[in-house]
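Narrative of activities, Objective 1.

The group set out to show that a structural description can be obtained from nothing but a protein's sequence at a throughput compatible with the screening campaign. Below is one input-output pair from the validation batch, recorded exactly as produced.
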Amino acid sequence: MAPRGQDISAASLSDFEVGVTLGTGSFGRVRFATHKDTTTPWAVKVLKKSELVRLQQVEHVISEKTILDQCKHPFIVHLACTFQDKWYLYMVLEYVVGGEFFTHLRNAGRLDIISTKFYSAQVTLIFEYLHARDFIYRDLKPENLLLDKDGYVKITDFGFAKRVIYKTYTLCGTPEYIAPEVLLNKGHGRGVDWWTLGILVYEMMVGQPPFIDEDPMGIYQQILIGKVSFPRFIERNARSLIKKLLVADLTKRYGCLKGGALDVNKHRFFQGVTFNDILAKKATGPVIPLVKDQFDTSNYEAYPDSIEEAPISVCTSGADLFASF
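Output recorded for this entry:
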């Protein structure tokens, strides 16, 4: 992995030796790439302009770049540079060698309380950092957390992140993780992130989110009813934290009260956790990914090479949409 904070010079994809696909999405894919001048590994996010315009995602991707440019945190993936051509936008991101946290969670089935505390503490520190800068993330889920070589998380995919002083009204997120105030279109703010933390803590300990259904509408109904069932093995302090995060009433939800993130950090669930040690990466991660070297991509799922039709160029007026990228 390239040193955190290292920046490189790149004007086009020809500055890289492009390798395997690390992940795919609605607007493009992420490719492993080696920067030719520095021989350092990177993850290049390739976004198709025509799809961004068609799906009305231009504002989101510009916001993603703007926010990542302003974030320097050990648990937030580093954006080194961006560039574009006629058809695509390119975001050159820190390569996180350990793969998706989602994969490790599924392999484990569910996590013990020590492991859950370790990862939850890092997410809490991420949200504390973002909220202090008026950013909300809005898309927490195991797929958006990566593991570095030391087993610590790096949060990625800031496509739904936004600078919000008070409230915003865009419906976005993953069905199982959406907060009730988003569904009710009442306007939402940083409280949505604390709700998603409650869902993540539950999923880590139980092996699935608290609200599940084959139909998203069924999930939404459960979220609005708000009844959380706990398996017997979930210990008291974990139940308490989850309940205090999964509260529809924002005047009672932990993270939204006067104490902010400190209310979460000081909860009995985190007894024995020293947040400064976690931030300084002094603790040993419960899962240390098997890594051969900094160029190892074996912790990511194998994707077939894309066989794409000729990309559609964005007309001149549409290209202006990307002027600030």
